[in-house]
Design goal:
- This protein has 950 residues and is mainly β.
- It has a 22-stranded antiparallel β-barrel. A five-stranded mixed sheet has the order 1-6-7-4-5.
């Protein structure tokens, strides 16, 4: 019951109304693109003698990838979209081992209504469907996850193992109920997909421009099947191995805080940073939704009087982030069909992740105003019409530090499944499956700082286009020391050591049973039913060492006395910002290789004394039942068909956190309705209603609360914790779609949709009393409701009979418009709700689009693609500063190019390039012109490859 039943349904009146254009398109493809048999098209001419195809293609038709070629893969994707009862988009491999992009996430960004974000470490990692990132992912219909999470790291699934991917935007009762954004179902290859013995090997060399490395991406598939007795047996193995050496570079202006002007209250110096509390009275509240006012002349109350303030940043910093990532993966599939009425499948899927990243960080505080001289106002420049500091000169005696941070991570995820399907007579078909999966993630963090106090620093928080600039000034009293040389080890002292580690584990045992009955009871054509039982465990643990400073056992606490510690980067930010281009940090790899030596010097436990502390352990059992029916009847001269369904789910959750425990139960009845109507053989409308859920993340359920007493004389302490009482977020979904398949292999489609979401989880602050003392407790709560509505438009068009060399051109384009809102309670410093703030939902761009220009001849194909999305609210900053809470990502764009050449029937050569325009990615605090935040430079990639079929 994890996916639509994978048999061809009994034909109904619907078949007479299905568009013929897409099925007929296959006949227009070159012979090289038709290596596998295709179903006979539904005739547009009622007098035609060809036997019509079924309304919904069977899985073996949808999963076949031997169509070969860019245009053929687009046509196959349209065929899936047209034949599905739900609103679905699809991506189909162009050939065995040839998915359209470097990874699945990059391929998804061109699907209508799908956006991607969180680019870093050489790839994009987060997928949103219609702006929402709560996506349920299945592989061959089986729910998969990574470690202790509820979702899978999609980037860990190599594209070379995939046959097709379907993106469900509406949900039928037989689909898993979670994921209010939608469901992504990934299909791998199976031996019965191939008519003969097949061997395919592929190799690519991918060059990362910023890192200067060229990395391998290798894959191989071997498949065969044999006649055994009166049946058939097949075996397939598919392996993949990819390496990525990456480099990400960023420059960031710190958070905003308020400062007095040149006329401060008694006891303060001009332009001193303003504390939140003065004489026991709160002066300003950090963490306001809109931040502190930034109009000229804005004031704050101190001792009963108003004093003007300016807003400036507390720091400026640069990060040079490099690393190496490896992803091994393998898929094994065994199929056995002992006769025509039964089939058994065993599959094993493995994906791994190995990562070692090194962050070289240069950081300087710029919030000290005590050494400005006689007229400090001359050292600052404001944005016109604001009280916001844009430039500062001569910031005296700033504290700087560098940090060499080494992080290693390792994931191993295994999935095993065994199942069968059986035909019982002419009408009843059954299938069942048992699945077990286990996933574990481990990471450790080892870092050392160096520090210094320099003579002065100058800074321009926005030199232009949101990119900061900064540098260090020499001390005239020490002319032999060039303090602008941040790469001089002699200027830095060894400081704190950090040594942390975490683990996350999860496993699940799942049983499913599904049935399909060809009822034929008048309009009720088909009944499907089933049950799903899933037992899931999730746990996390950690160890954190103290961040004490350098022990005296390190001679002079200097880098020059410890040359093995020295690591110096070069060429930072490719000359695109006026910032230091090189600096010295402790070498994280050297520290990690000699970890126990440095642990002992810092007075830390050595490796034989280290242990993890479990944070939580959750055991969750979910049981679901569903029933749905397909119907069809004549309406006018055409046919109205559809599906009615209901799904019942019950979830029991037992939680253990340290010495405490808790439990919860939730159940829900989820109805779904889908209607389809064809106005003409080529024009179809869809109307859908459904309800879906989002369960809280396991780590959000942790009831343990950490209390920190008042250390700033505010009058109350602070506390943080999870919330075992979190309820699932519920979404009611409406969709109206129109699809026109106007010529072979071409279509235009549009969808209007609306999501009404209740009980979204947001951080909520309130006052509590613990052991006779007041605290402001921050916990996740179902405190927000929201609405999302939008429009999707898409087109695939390959013009027919273009003259000469123009024949073969085509376009694939999509546009998505979104409008969202969420109501978030606003609390004061006492934890009292004082307002309800309406903001956009996180991750929602108002508009996004993609355009793919394709060209294909008999042996040659090319694709130029461009993706753009508008700016969007990404996350909330920590509620400690004076800037607005919301951190927005600026508009993002990417241009990619691909060429394939079939040198022979068996050999294909490829050339790929990504991020051709070498974009800068930027973020800001709500107001982009004055509240810029970070600017990041990511690498372009260039790749050459070959693929050989035996």
């Amino acid at each position: 019951m994890n996916r639509p039943t994978r048999w061809t349904p009994t034909r109904s009146l619907r078949q007479a109304a299905l568009p013929a254009a897409l099925a007929m398109a296959l006949s227009a493809l070159p012979a090289a693109a038709q290596e596998s048999a295709q179903p006979c098209p539904t005739p547009a001419d009622p007098d035609a003698t060809c036997e019509p195809a079924d309304a919904t293609p069977a899985a073996t038709d949808l999963d076949r990838v031997e169509v070969r070629g860019l245009r053929a893969s687009m046509i196959d994707a349209l065929q899936i979209k047209q034949g599905s009862m739900q609103i679905v988009d699809a991506i189909v491999a162009e050939d065995i081992g040839k998915f359209p992009d470097n990874n699945l996430v990059e391929a998804l960004q061109r699907v209508t209504g799908v956006q991607t974000t969180d680019r870093g470490a050489g790839e994009v990692t987060t997928v949103s469907i219609r702006g929402l990132n709560d996506v349920t992912t299945t592989i061959n219909g089986r729910n998969i996850f990574t470690a202790s999470g509820r979702s899978v790291a999609l980037a860990d699934i190599p594209a070379s193992l995939l046959a097709s991917t379907e993106i469900y935007k509406t949900r039928s009762a037989n689909l898993i109920e979670t994921g209010i954004a939608g469901q992504i179902d990934i299909h791998t290859h199976r031996p019965f997909d191939f008519d003969e013995a097949t061997v395919v090997v592929a190799a690519r060399a991918i060059h990362q421009e910023q890192n200067g490395e060229t990395d391998p991406n290798l894959s191989a598939l071997v498949s065969n099947s044999w006649d055994v007795g009166g049946g058939r047996f097949g075996a397939l193995a598919n392996v993949s191995y990819a390496v990525t050496n990456y480099r990400d570079q960023s420059v960031t202006a710190g958070a905003m805080v308020p400062f007095f002007t040149d006329a401060p209250p008694e006891g303060f110096v001009p332009y001193e940073r303003i504390p939140t509390v003065i004489d026991g009275v709160e002066v300003w509240q950090p963490g306001l939704e809109a931040g502190l006012p930034f109009a000229p002349g804005s004031t704050l109350p101190v001792r009963g009087q108003q004093y003007e303030y300016v807003l400036s940043r507390d720091a400026i910093f640069a990060s040079d982030f490099t690393g190496r990532r490896e992803r091994p993966a393998a898929n094994v599939s065994l199929q056995w069909a002992p006769n025509d009425t039964s089939e058994y499948v065993f599959e094993a899927f493995y994906n791994g992740y190995r990562n070692e990243s090194f962050n070289s960080l240069l950081f300087s505080f710029v919030d000290w105003w005590g050494a400005l001289g006689a007229n400090p106002a001359q050292n600052i420049g404001l944005y016109d019409g604001t009280n916001i500091v844009r430039t500062r000169q001569g910031i005296g005696a700033p504290y700087n530090f560098t940090s060499g941070d080494l992080t290693t991570g390792k994931t191993d995820s295994y999935l095993y499944a065994f199942g069968g399907k059986w035909e019982i007579g002419d009408r009843l078909k059954l299938q069942s499956e048992v699945t077990y999966q286990d996933s574990e993630f481990e990471t450790d963090f080892f870092a050392m700082r160096t520090d210094r106090v320099t003579n002065a620093v100058w800074v321009d928080f926005n030199r232009g286009g949101g990119v900061p600039a900064f540098g260090f000034e020499d001390n005239p009293a020490t002319p032999d020391v060039d303090e602008s040389r941040t790469d001089d080890p002699a200027q830095w002292n060894v400081a704190q050591l950090y040594d942390n580690a975490n683990y996350a584990r999860g496993d699940a045992t799942t049983f499913t049973f599904d049935g399909d009955y060809a009822a034929g009871w008048g309009p009720l054509d088909r009944i499907t039913f089933g049950a799903r039982y899933d037992n899931r465990t999730s746990s996390e643990g950690m160890r954190v060492g103290p961040d004490n400073a350098c022990d005296r056992a390190l001679p002079d606490c200097s880098l020059t006395a410890n040359p093995g510690l020295v690591s110096i980067n070069t060429g930072f930010f490719d000359g695109r910002a006026d910032v230091p281009t090189s600096w010295v940090v402790p070498d994280g790899r050297y520290i990690r290789d000699n970890a126990d030596f440095y642990r002992a010097l810092y007075g830390r436990p050595t490796s034989d004394q280290l242990s993890m502390t479990e944070n939580f352990n959750v055991d969750e059992t979910s049981t679901a039942l569903y029933l749905q029916g397909d119907f069809a009847f004549e309406l006018g001269e055409q046919v109205l068909d559809g599906q009615l369904g209901v799904r019942y789910v019950d979830v029991d959750t037992d939680m253990v956190f340290g010495e405490g425990s808790d439990s919860a139960n939730a159940s829900k009845l989820l109805p779904s309705v889908m209607l389809r109507y064809s106005f003409t053989p080529n024009l179809m409308a869809r109307l859908a209603y459904g309800e879906t859920l989002r369960r809280p993340a396991f780590n959000q359920l942790n009831p343990n609360i950490i209390y920190v007493e008042d250390v700033t004389n505010i009058g109350y302490g602070t506390a943080t914790g999870g919330n075992p009482g979190l309820e699932p977020t519920e979404s009611t979904n409406y969709d109206l779609g129109l699809e026109w398949y106007f010529s072979p292999g071409s279509a235009v489609y549009a969808t209007l949709f609306r999501r009404e979401i209740e009980g979204m989880v947001t951080d909520f602050r309130r006052r509590v009393t613990f052991e006779g003392y007041d605290y402001i407790l921050t916990q996740p709560d179902n405190a927000s409701d929201g609405e999302l509505e939008g429009l999707e438009l898409g087109v695939v068009y390959f013009p027919e009979s273009l003259p000469g060399l123009l024949d073969g051109f085509g376009v694939q384009a999509s546009y998505t418009a979104l409008d969202s809102s969420q109501d978030i309670p606003v609390t004061n410093s006492a934890g009292e709700v004082v307002d309800i703030q309406t903001t956009p939902m996180f991750g929602i761009s108002d508009s996004s689009y993609s355009v793919v220009l394709a060209y294909e001849r008999s042996r040659f194909s090319a694709r130029l693609s461009y993706v753009w999305r508008d700016d969007f609210l990404h996350h909330y900053e920590a509620a400690l500063f004076a800037n607005p809470l919301g951190v927005y990502f600026n508009a993002e764009q990417s241009m990619d190019f691909q060429i394939s050449y079939n040198a022979s029937d068996n050999l294909t050569l490829t050339l790929d390039a990504t991020n051709l325009t070498d974009e800068l990615y930027q973020s800001y605090y709500e107001y982009p012109d004055t509240h810029n935040f970070g600017t990041a430079l990511y690498s372009r990639t260039f790749a050459v490859g070959l693929r050989y079929r035996f």
